[in-house]
Amino acid sequence: MESYRWRPAQSSAMDYQVRTQTATSLLEIVLDRGESVMAEPGAMVTHTPGLEIETQSSGGGLMSSLKNSVLGGESLFQTEFTATRDGVQLTLGTSTVGDIVGIELEGETLNVQSGSYVAAGPEIGMESRGSGSSFFGGEGLFVLELSGTGPAFLEAFGGIETITLEADQSFVVDTGHLVAWEPSLQFDTRMVASGLKSSLLSGEGRVCDFTGPGTVYVQTTDTASFADAIEPHITTGSS
């Protein structure tokens, strides 16, 4: 029997590298007595003894500035974790499979795609910038504006990477891959191909044209593409 040996592709003339090889991430936070952190409901995975847990509605705390009308009437809640002793360990997980990144804000503002928010320090304020249907042209997302001093933790579907643009430097990002971006960036949204038919046939939708200076955070996978990929393999259970 003839045998075949796998041949690596280093000899290829194409310049490439595989980046951001990620499975799942856990965020570990160590809190001393009196320290607290706000997180999305359901994000907690484990904690050591000495932690008080309180659920807050959108009427107070970190989410007080979010309007139910922006979210289609859906009620929002945040979970506040407060340590009652030193050295309490808290781990938080993602709602999807992917990375977690911590961004330290120092009196700064960061625009975040709403589904990417995991947790933040108590001194980080949050506001909604408007509904996604108008902001992203029907992508069904809305934007959160985080501001203040302290850590903010974001999740990505897949890996997460940063793109730092100098003044007048431009970059194009599919809106389904956006995680966050600095407000110093200028951007416009548009369809990736001319005409609705061309866009649908290309498999791409709406993109953002960013111009620096500033940093954009992107994820390697988007939920819409993932849903399309697994849909043929999902059975409804009906006969």
Give a brief rundown of this model:
With 239 residues, this protein is mainly β.
What keywords describe this structure?
single chain; 239 residues; Double-stranded beta-helix; 10-stranded antiparallel sheet; 3-stranded antiparallel sheet; 3 helices
Q: Can you walk me through this structure?
A:
- The protein is mainly beta and 239 residues long.
- The protein has three helices and 16 strands.
- Strands 2, 4, 5, 7, 8, 9, 10, 11, 13 and 16 form a ten-stranded antiparallel beta sheet that branches. A three-stranded antiparallel beta sheet has the order 1-6-3, with no helix packed on it. Strands 12-15-14 form a three-stranded antiparallel beta sheet, with no helix packed on it.
- The longest helix has 8 residues.
Ordered list of secondary-structure elements with their pairings:
Blueprint: E1 26-31, E2 36-39, E3 44-47, E4 51-57, E5 77-83, E6 88-93, E7 100-113, E8 117-120, E9 124-128, H1 132-135, E10 143-155, E11 160-165, E12 170-174, E13 178-181, E14 186-191, H2 196-202, E15 206-211, E16 214-219, H3 223-230
Antiparallel strand pairs: 1-6, 2-5, 2-8, 3-6, 4-5, 7-10, 7-13, 8-10, 9-10, 11-16, 12-15, 13-16, 14-15
Runs in which pLDDT lies below 50 for 5 or more consecutive residues are 1-7, 58-75, 197-202
The CATH architecture designation is 4-Layer Sandwich
Q: How much helicity do the residues have?
A: under 10%
Number of structural domains: 1
Order of helices and strands: EEEEEEEEEHEEEEEHEEH
The CATH topology assignment is Double-stranded beta-helix
Largest sheet, in brief, is:
10 strands, antiparallel
